[in-house]
Automatic annotation (TrEMBL):
NCBIfam families: 16S rRNA (guanine(966)-N(2))-methyltransferase RsmD (TIGR00095). It holds the Pfam family Cons_hypoth95. One of its GO terms (molecular function) is 16S rRNA (guanine(966)-N(2))-methyltransferase activity. Its EC number is 2.1.1.171. This is 16S rRNA (Guanine(966)-N(2))-methyltransferase RsmD. InterPro entries: DNA_methylase_N6_adenine_CS (IPR002052), RNA_MeTrfase_RsmD (IPR004398), SAM-dependent_MTases_sf (IPR029063). Coiled coil: none annotated. The lineage of its organism: Bacteria, Bacillati, Bacillota, Bacilli, Lactobacillales. It comes from Pseudolactococcus paracarnosus. Keywords: Methyltransferase, Transferase.
Length: 183
């Protein structure tokens, strides 16, 4: 696996062996970023289920200013730290070594881009989006990118957020939410 584009483009990323994490492959990651606008002019990223850290690193590579990565698995945390080290800009990254639910009590926003790739998708995605919104840590223009198994059906509306785009890539599905006008 490697960083697809931007400042760190082409650099290799380490991933965890086994089934504990499911790293987003290069093709899906490239497609994901082309769906949300391939490059950015600053902003903060939150990756609530960081795995190897590839999504947050890709976002920083493409112009986001800083990232908070949340990961509870110790082996995955070590991989994330190695991958952050590869960027030579570790000051742009914060790793919270805990589960996503616990991290919600420690986050401070605003976040402009959020990645959700939880192990048990449907209920978790809905709860995470609602929880983040209730904490008021999401910017008004936040983009929330969810990666799930292709079989998972997420709702069109979750609280103040509307599904704006969805695409299937093999066994994965990418769903994007933005704040809606239905308040």
């Amino acid at each position: 696996m490697r960083v697809v584009a931007g400042q760190y483009g082409g650099r290799n990323l380490r991933t965890l062996d086994g089934k504990l994490t499911r790293p987003t492959g290069d093709k899906v990651r490239a497609a994901m970023f082309s769906m949300i606008g391939p490059f950015f002019e600053g902003g903060r990223v939150l990756d609530l289920y960081a795995g190897s850290g590839g999504l947050a690193i890709e976002a920083i590579s493409r112009g986001m200013s800083s990232a908070v990565l949340v990961e509870r698995d110790r082996k995955a945390q070590a991989i994330i730290l190695d991958n952050i080290e590869m960027t030579k800009e570790s000051n742009k990254f914060t790793l919270l070594k805990m589960d996503a639910k616990r991290s919600l009590k420690q986050l401070s926003g605003p976040f402009d881009l959020v990645f959700l790739d939880p192990p048990y998708a449907k209920e978790t995605v809905q709860n995470d989006i609602s929880g983040l919104d209730n904490l008021q840590v999401l910017s008004d223009q936040v983009v929330i990118v969810c990666e799930t198994d292709a079989s998972v059906e997420l709702p069109v509306v979750i609280g103040a957020f509307e599904l704006i785009r969805q695409k299937r890539y093999g066994i994965s599905k990418v769903t994007i939410y933005k704040r809606g006008d239905h308040d």
